[in-house]
């Protein structure tokens, strides 16, 4: 049975056989040189890795058996046999769930849309399940409690993360939470500088390395706000800065690299957080929903197609 390894980057993240490929993807930015080549080979063809001997995997990755052994220990495994079993179990679950139809296969320019749709659905489904497995519900609870009680919530993000942040701002606004989503750094910094204890700042970044988002969250943190990071990399600078970390997983496909494929998992986590806030502010949220629905009712078309 695998045992924890001193200084292993995943030693505190549960049983190493749970979500082996997810762990490899999460740690890929931290691996360098030969270890990174082994990780990339495993991710490129997990099924082949689960069948390969240690010598075969070393040859395919251009490394050595000793490097593969170090790779296993970095993941928290005693040896290569345990790694193979973990990968085999995960690929077996994926096959039974119908996720392996196109995962890992590059989308070709001439592929029919039916195949492309299958790959996107398979990748997104896998990413959702991986995110659910990674998510620390105690952290979601902490974030929901903080937001429900906050007199002000600031959301920071750039590019695609800004769009996700605006979606969260829309949802929270509908239930009466005083929330602002900032995409301009200057305006965001001005708002962050006015933060105080009790306020909440949510920073969204797939990589956790977006400089502007880190700067904005750091400013809010320095003023005493409770800070939340939504990222795919729990050891990233953004995560290290935050009081609460919400972890997402991704499953990249051709034309949809990690930063783009992160959107749906991010929205799932934020939807969960939004519902958790609404649960804790039920009376206020219900009243806000009724008021906002009535306010826009006059702009909806009647059932016969004519404006109300």
Short summary:
With 308 residues, this protein is of the alpha/beta class. The protein is built from 15 helices and 5 strands. The radius of gyration is 22 Å and the shape is globular.
Protein architecture, described:
The protein has 308 residues and is an alpha/beta fold. The protein contains 15 helices and five strands. The protein has a five-stranded parallel β-sheet, with helices on both faces. α10 (185-193) runs parallel beside α11. The longest helix is centred in the middle third of the chain and has 22 residues, at 113-134. The model is unreliable at 1-17 and 98-104 (pLDDT under 50).
| Spatial order of the strands forming the largest sheet | 2-1-3-4-5
Number of helices: 15
Terminal CA distance: 67 Å
Return the average pLDDT rounded to an integer: 84
Question: How would you spell out the order of helices and strands?
Answer: HHHHHHHHEHEHEHEHEHHH
- CA-atom Rg in angstroms: 22 Å
Q: Look at the helices and sheets and give the structural class.
A: alpha/beta
List the helices and strands and how they pair.
Blueprint lengths: L19 H8 L5 H12 L1 H6 L2 H8 L3 H10 L5 H18 L15 H22 L2 H13 L3 E5 L2 H15 L4 E4 L2 H9 L6 E5 L6 H12 L3 E6 L5 H5 L2 E4 L10 H4 L1 H18 L1 H16 L11
Parallel strand pairs: 1-2, 1-3, 3-4, 4-5
Helix pairs in contact: 2-4, 2-5, 4-5, 7-14, 8-14, 9-14, 10-11, 14-15
């Amino acid at each position: 049975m695998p045992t924890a390894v001193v200084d292993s980057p995943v030693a505190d993240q549960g049983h190493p056989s749970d979500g082996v490929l997810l762990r490899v993807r999460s740690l890929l930015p931290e691996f360098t040189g030969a270890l990174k080549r082994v990780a990339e080979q495993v991710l490129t063809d997990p099924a082949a890795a689960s069948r390969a001997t240690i010598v075969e995997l070393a040859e395919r990755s251009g490394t050595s058996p000793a490097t593969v052994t170090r790779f296993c220990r970095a993941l928290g495994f005693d040896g290569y046999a345990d790694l193979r079993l973990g990968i085999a179990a995960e690929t077996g679950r994926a096959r039974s769930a119908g996720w392996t139809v196109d995962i890992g296969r590059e989308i070709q320019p001439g592929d029919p849309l039916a195949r492309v749709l299958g790959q996107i659905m398979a990748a997104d489904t896998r990413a959702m399940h991986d995110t659910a497995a990674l998510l620390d519900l105690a952290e979601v609870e902490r974030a929901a409690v903080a937001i429900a009680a906050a007199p002000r919530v600031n959301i920071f993000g750039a590019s695609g993360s800004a769009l996700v942040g605006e979606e969260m701002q829309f949802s929270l606004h509908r239930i009466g939470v005083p929330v602002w989503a900032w995409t301009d750094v200057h305006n965001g910094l001005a708002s962050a500088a006015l933060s105080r204890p009790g306020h909440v700042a949510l920073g969204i970044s797939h990589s956790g390395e977006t400089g502007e988002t880190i700067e904005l969250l750091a400013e809010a943190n320095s003023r005493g706000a409770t800070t939340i990071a939504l990222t795919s990399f729990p050891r990233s600078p953004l995560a290290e800065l935050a009081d609460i970390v919400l972890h997402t997983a991704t499953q990249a496909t051709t034309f949809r690299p990690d930063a783009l494929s992160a959107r749906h998992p991010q929205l799932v986590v934020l939807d969960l957080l939004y519902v958790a806030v609404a649960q804790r502010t039920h009376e206020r949220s219900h009243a806000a929903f009724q008021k906002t629905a009535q306010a826009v009712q006059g702009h909806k078309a009647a059932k016969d197609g004519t404006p109300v």
